[in-house]
Design brief:
Helix 4 crosses helix 9 and helix 5 packs across helix 15. This protein is globular. It is an all-alpha fold and about 450 residues long.
Length: about 450
């Protein structure tokens, strides 16, 4: 046994660290607003959906060990063209996710130090400073990255556990639950804020909760550095998600019983902190969130450029993105993805709700393609040779098909019109042009440019 490789429990910890980031600190309010008292159930449903997808990605990793995760799987299963499309859109999705997390860490830092976290100038300057810090961390190498990752894991889990324990203690001491206050909340027009659950509101709530579970898709990309990934990944990832789901369930349950009004109506960056009136507990949650967010940003700054680098090595994007510094930092790829991570939040004026939804939805291309790829690997129909791995009908066919169907269901039932609309200065609902343009550029224009580049390059040889 190679002691240098990650064992089962190391994979579990890696998964926990990759998933717990900004979502649970920021999304409980939107989930509670959509689902009301059923919010804890929504997190369980999101955890089940995540488990299906996570197992699917883990199964793909045992057939394809190249870097790039979804890009590598799609290219192996379907060939260069679709692989290139998934690769480009995955870079975009990862960059958007990075930008989303960067927005939250900057705004939280500004709040902690008493600055206006809604000031666009402050946030933009903070964003640029954050990117410079991340660049320096990457230049120093993986040792510093590992230390920060470990500190982040401890900080985020500790903050969440303290939140649950403190909340339970307060509820036990006072003997009072405020969950009934959810039904009395009113919108500006006087109608109930928490409406009856429909298929659309259910899906919207599940996607909002699902954002708190994203990050699992990057875990399997390092399968070549793990012990028996074909056995350990399909077990470790669902176990980690189960642990996370239990923590999230406890958080949302405490929140809607302790202070549901603050959870739903708070304008604070770290929504979770608003459920406490005790300033010490509030600070613990905010600092825990900041540590968690920063750690996830460090991880994103490491993983995101390497997807673009993997494509450059396959000559599907300009080869300059495959160039590395002497310390193995792919600097051109880093700078490209960092710029994209800055542009998206800036174009949305750092509106947390809009970029969170865009970040969640932008991942669904790979959630549709990878399940099909795994089934293709199982039946030996891939375009490129794959590893001769032990096949399993449950993890390689049944679960991927379930994951695919669930992804399609969520996309069909999703409130596209509502999420791509915003209120203007007069309160009127208008089309969110920036969101639509961003999706068109990211999922049509850029892939088309890369496809033309690749085709032209081949024809010139």
């Amino acid at each position: 046994m190679d002691k240098k490789k990650l064992g089962f429990w190391s994979i579990v910890l890696l998964t926990i660290n990759s998933i717990i980031g900004t979502g649970i600190f920021l999304s409980p309010g939107s989930v509670a607003k959509s689902a009301g008292t059923k919010a804890p159930l929504i997190y369980i449903v999101a955890a089940i959906f995540t488990s299906m997808l996570a197992i699917t990605f883990a199964s793909a990793a045992k057939y394809v060990s190249k870097g790039g995760a979804a890009y590598a799987y799609s290219k192996a299963a379907f060939g260069d063209s679709l692989g290139q499309y998934v690769g480009v859109t995955r870079v975009i999705a990862a960059s958007i996710a990075w930008g989303t997390m960067g927005t939250f860490v900057v705004r939280t830092t500004l709040k902690i130090f008493g600055f206006d976290s809604a000031n666009l100038t402050y946030v933009t300057i903070g964003f640029l400073v954050l990117m410079i810090i991340l660049l320096l961390i990457n230049i120093f190498g993986t040792k510093l990255l590992t230390i920060i990752s470990d500190i982040s894991t401890i900080g985020k889990v500790l903050a969440l556990v303290v939140t649950i324990i403190a909340g339970v203690a307060i509820l036990a001491y006072t003997g009072t639950s405020h969950i009934s206050e959810l039904s009395s909340l009113k919108a500006q027009d006087g109608t109930p804020l928490i409406k009856e659950m429909t298929a659309t509101t259910f899906v919207t709530a599940v996607i909002a909760a699902f954002y708190a579970f994203t990050g699992f898709e990057s875990v399997a990309s390092g399968s070549q550095d793990m012990e028996e990934p074909e056995k350990n990944l399909p077990k470790a990832i669902p176990l980690a998600i189960g642990i996370i789901a239990a923590i999230y369930f406890g958080i949302i349950l405490v929140g809607i019983h302790l202070n549901p009004v603050a959870l739903v109506q708070s304008k604070e960056v770290v929504v979770l902190a608003s459920i406490f009136t005790n300033p010490i507990l509030e600070k613990v949650v905010i600092i825990g969130a900041l540590v968690s967010m920063f750690g996830i940003n460090v991880a994103a700054s490491f993983h995101t450029p390497r997807v673009l680098e993997a494509m450059a090595k396959e000559k599907q994007v300009p080869e300059i993105f495959a160039k590395r510094l002497s310390n193995d930092l792919p600097l051109p790829a880093f700078l490209f993805t960092a710029i994209f991570a800055i542009i998206i939040p800036l174009s949305f004026r750092y509106d947390s709700t809009s970029i969170t939804i865009i970040s969640s939805i932008s991942r669904f291309v790979q959630f549709l393609i990878v399940p099909i790829a795994v089934v293709i690997f199982f039946y030996g129909k891939s375009k490129e040779p794959v590893l001769d791995s032990k096949k399993n009908m449950v993890t390689d066919v049944i679960i991927p098909i379930i994951a695919l169907l669930l992804s399609i269901l969520l996309l069909v039932k999703f409130d596209w019109k509502g999420q791509f609309s915003v209120k203007d200065s007069t309160g009127a609902v208008v089309t969110n042009v920036k969101a639509i343009v961003s999706m068109i550029v990211g999922y049509v224009v850029l892939p088309a440019i890369m496809f033309i580049y690749s085709k032209t390059r081949k024809e010139s040889k």
